[in-house]
Amino acid sequence: MRFKHFLTVIFIILIPLIIGMYFPQTVDWGRGVSVSIIQPFLEGVRALTHWTEKQKELVAGLFHLREENERLTKEVESFEQQKVALKEAQQENVRLRHLLDFQRSSKWQALSAQVIGRDLSHWTNDVVINKGAQDGIKLDMPIVNGDGLVGKVIQVAPRASKVILLIDAESRASALVQETRDAGLAEGDGKPFLKMTYLDLHSDIKVGNTVVTSGLGGIYPKGIPIGEIIQIAEDNQKLSLSAVVKPYVAFSKLEEVLCLVVDRPNDAASLTDSF
């Protein structure tokens, strides 16, 4: 049995050799057929290999693009944060320069402070500043900013103070029309505008005139800007004039203020420890 298998193997090996020796054209034809059959398969394998390599390159490129996109996104976010911080610093610089100009042009010493809290409800209009008794703040100390009169200190704690704004319904300030020198009282009513009362019925005040503090009353020194007259009317009894005054100070945007150190005779202002 084994001998038959051996003969079969010898036969299979010898037949191609005999055919190649005596019929070389047949061998060439067989090679051509084999190549024709195998070539499409080889081309397919080569194309598949090429496509696979391209896909690998594409995937690698996508991962690279994703990483680059994440990096650029972080850079853009960082740039936007820096841009916002720079703009905030520029605006703060403008406000502080404006405040410094006011301080330089005034004759009073002043302590700078920042607004750290506010209550602008319908009932009260006050803010809290970050300076208190330990910093030299006293009751009734006038508060201003670069635009004009803000209000006065009504409560003092060791490291903070409460300031009532000029537009509060409980606020009053002796005032003067700068152009005509007519005196009156600037009053708040909780609204954005002030009312100046007790003006002379025959006064020559006009819309557009400037209102400043008169220095009377012992709280606010003379000459601090308050606002501009935008409306004039007679009172109900027609005994005096009243005027609507638009404040120079934007009370809803207060951030930095100055606390004026004003010498007052017999200053008996006391300090409170808490609000």
Automatic annotation (TrEMBL):
Family membership: Belongs to the MreC family.
Transmembrane found in the keyword field: yes
Transmembrane segments: 6-23
Top-rank lineage group of the source organism: Bacteria
Protein name stated in the entry: Cell shape-determining protein MreC
Role description: Involved in formation and maintenance of cell shape.
Encoding gene (name): mreC
Biological processes annotated in GO: regulation of cell shape
Keyword Transmembrane helix: yes
Coiled-coil features, chain-numbered ranges: 62-106
Lineage of the species this protein comes from: Bacteria, Pseudomonadati, Candidatus Omnitrophota, Candidatus Abzuiibacterium
Short name of one Pfam family: MreC
InterPro entries cross-referenced by the UniProt entry: Cell/Rod_1, Cell/Rod_MreC_2, MreC, MreC_beta-barrel_core
Protein source organism: Candidatus Abzuiibacterium crystallinum
